[in-house]
Amino acid sequence: MIVTHPTVRSASPEETRERILAAAREVIGRKGKRGATTREIAEVAGVNEATLFRHFGTKEALLVACAQHFCGYVQLADVAAQLTGDLGEDLFVLARTMFTRFESLQDMIRWSLVEQEYEKDIFAETTWRPQLAILAVLTEFMQRRIGSGELTGDAQKLAMVFLGLIFMHALGRKKFPASGLYGDEPESALRFYIDVFLNGVRKR
């Protein structure tokens, strides 16, 4: 069932852009990036195709803008920039922020994984990627904590490990709902990951 947004003649450019992005996500959720058409996206947004192209230029540019808008890297960067307290607690704040976002993006993540080959063409003309933007935020955070002497190692590798743990948990909850780890409340699981990340599992 297609849910269309009524055309609002007095909508500002920002509001129109927001509706188009929301419509793009909704259509992609049903048909994938390859199957989504600008015509249907415009219909769902309550605008004509000319308006869509005036805001985004091409379908590919719209898909990149949709990823940028919803992936949450700006929010994560704002949160990370303010974290200067206890390392474990700061990592928990980052983990919770990412987990909440990943949970809300199951539809986009699913299609991103399914259509990896198609995405190579979409992002061919830009160095920006959602995962790289998030990784860059975490790398900067890790580098700051390496500089303060709290962590050691390669900042980007540490960021990739930490990101992988949280990403895996967000996707794994539906795959392993009855398991002890995935069946726990998210907070306890996230704190477990942070403990493993900071302290390892070898008996001391």
Account of the protein in words:
The chain is mostly helical. The protein folds into two domains: 13-68, Orthogonal Bundle (Arc Repressor Mutant, subunit A); 71-199, Tetracycline Repressor, domain 2 (Orthogonal Bundle), CATH 1.10.357. Helices cover 74% and strands 0% of the residues. It has helices spanning 13-35, 38-45, 49-56, 59-70, 73-81, 87-104, 106-114, 116-122, 130-147, 155-175, 180-183, 186-199. Helix 1 (13-35) runs antiparallel to helix 2 (38-45). The longest helix has 23 residues, at 13-35. The mean pLDDT is 87.
Overview in brief:
74% of the residues lie in helices and 0% in strands.
Descriptive terms for the model:
204 residues; mainly alpha; Arc Repressor Mutant, subunit A; Tetracycline Repressor, domain 2; 2 domains; elongated
